[in-house]
Design brief:
8-stranded mixed beta sheet; 12 helices; FAD/NAD(P)-binding domain; D-Amino Acid Oxidase, Chain A, domain 2; globular; alpha/beta; 16 strands
Length: 456
């Protein structure tokens, strides 16, 4: 079987990429390990800022949205102090969203190979020529294409089988991931009052070390709740054990859905395109490093990468030279912000409950500053100048110096991923070495242990 593009993975990123390319008239196949009726069923917080849909002009139907939020509310470990971060968001029904995206793609001619797993990748003449896929309890079949897109998730099925000399095969560290567990329940006690208007995030290094726990109302009545937590992946913590110990006794009710997974919480891979391959979504680490939200940024990455792969196919040549602009556009759109927030993420993972409590109790940051961090990825002058006198007065002068260090390295990595990002593939090795040196220097200064590299 021969296609223009083969997409591996039918999550939101893979389905969006397939839809974009099929809408341009290309022959597209999607390979997915789940059966068709399970597409869209993913363990997730389900929340997304509406600005992501607006950026790619994706108009989703109303029945995909379960609930609308006015913003995010962040609680201190004692839960006595809260901080409201404004910004419209929604809770989506992941199954309905996935099934809607799938239907849109099928209507455009996308061919689906559901219940198929990727068995092998055949590289010839320095490009991917074909993939071998196997249906559950079925034979292996060979599929050829001009281009391939890996949207298979945090443990990338295609990218991990590419030559290690390709920079798109970048291997991260274990601590670049969080592992999460969550349950959707019909609670005996509803969320009411002001809290019902927000996606609630709780900073607590005991319950969720290196991450946070969350409470997201799913419907107007406040009874259906998405409750979960994420912890840094260092081989020490188990999110389900922590959920059972700390959260399950607190949120009693009827279990609707449960599950866990691994989430990349770092800057994006050095390049989202190489030879005739593109990578999007969790496989490309396009997740926000601080809050772990990835639906919106995955959609953005898929839209950008598939657009430039389509342009290259129309031009009759598909390689990293012809698709390189996809990297530049993604870094402008989201990647540079991710790089800055990756620096902040490592700093936050070093803080204790006493630190979080002190910061929120004394309102060292306000909601607008946190919003700017989330939208721009910058630790602005406003925070440093406004709070410097307060920090000295309250007896934590060391915090100001720490924030200056974090700010400086955030700005450095953001610059490397925006104005200093390579204009061509030939500049990538030197740039990537510089990025690694900056990250290594920063982790050494703050005493952050990166751990081992992953095996995939």
């Amino acid at each position: 079987m021969k296609y223009d593009v083969i997409v591996v993975g039918a999550g939101v990123a893979g389905l969006e990429a397939a839809l974009v390319l099929a809408s341009k008239g290309f022959k597209v196949a999607v390979i997915e390990s789940k059966p068709v009726e399970k597409i869209g069923d993913k363990t997730c917080g389900d929340a997304i800022g509406v600005h992501h849909f607006e950026k790619i002009s994706l108009e989703i139907p109303g029945n995909v949205i379960d609930y609308k939020y006015q913003g995010v509310k962040i609680y201190s470990p004692s839960e006595k102090h809260g901080l409201i971060v404004p910004g419209e968001g929604v809770s989506v029904n992941r199954v309905r969203f996935g099934q809607w995206l799938l239907k849109e793609g099928l209507n455009k001619g996308v061919e689906l190979y559901d219940s198929h797993v990727l068995a092998d990748v055949i590289v010839k003449n320095d490009k991917v020529e074909e993939v071998k896929v196997k249906k559950v309890d079925g034979p292996i079949i060979e599929l050829k294409a001009e281009a391939f897109i890996d949207a298979s998730g945090a443990r990338p099925a295609l990218r991990s089988k590419l030559p290690e000399t390709w920079p798109i095969s970048d291997r991260p560290f274990m601590t670049d991931f969080n592992i999460a567990y969550r349950e959707v329940i019909k609670s005996e006690k509803p969320v009411t009052g002001e809290d019902s208007k927000y996606a609630l995030i709780y900073l607590n290094a005991e319950i969720a070390p290196g991450g946070y726990w969350w409470l997201f109302p799913k419907f107007e009545d406040g009874f259906i709740l998405n409750v979960g937590l994420g912890v840094v992946w260092n081989g020490v913590y188990n999110p389900r054990h922590n959920y059972e110990k700390y959260l399950k006794p607190r949120f009693k009710g009827e279990l609707i859905h449960a599950g866990g997974g691994i989430v990349p919480t770092r800057r994006p891979i050095p390049t989202l395109v190489w030879r005739n391959v593109g990578v999007v979504g969790d496989a490309a680490y396009t997740v926000n490093p601080v809050h772990g939200g990835g639906i919106g940024s995955s959609l953005e990455a898929a839209y950008i990468v598939s657009t430039y792969i389509g342009n290259a196919l129309e031009a009759g040549r598909i390689d990293e030279e012809k698709t390189w602009e996809a990297n530049i556009k993604y870094m402008e759109s989201y990647g540079a912000k991710q790089a800055g927030l990756d620096v902040l993420r490592m700093y936050l993972q070093r803080l204790s409950n006493d630190d979080f409590e002190w910061i929120l109790k004394n309102r060292i940051v306000d909601g607008s500053s946190v919003y700017d961090l989330g939208v721009k990825g910058e630790l602005g002058e406003k925070i440093l100048h406004t709070v410097s006198a307060m920090i000295k007065l309250l007896g934590k002068p060391s915090l100001l110096n720490q924030l200056r260090i974090v700010r400086n390295y955030m700005n450095r990595l953001m610059s490397l991923h925006s104005a200093e990002y390579p204009k061509s593939p030939g500049e990538l090795p030197k740039w990537n070495s510089l990025v690694e040196n900056v990250v290594e220097e920063y982790t050494r200064i703050i005493g952050f242990e990166r751990g081992q590299k992953v095996k995939w």
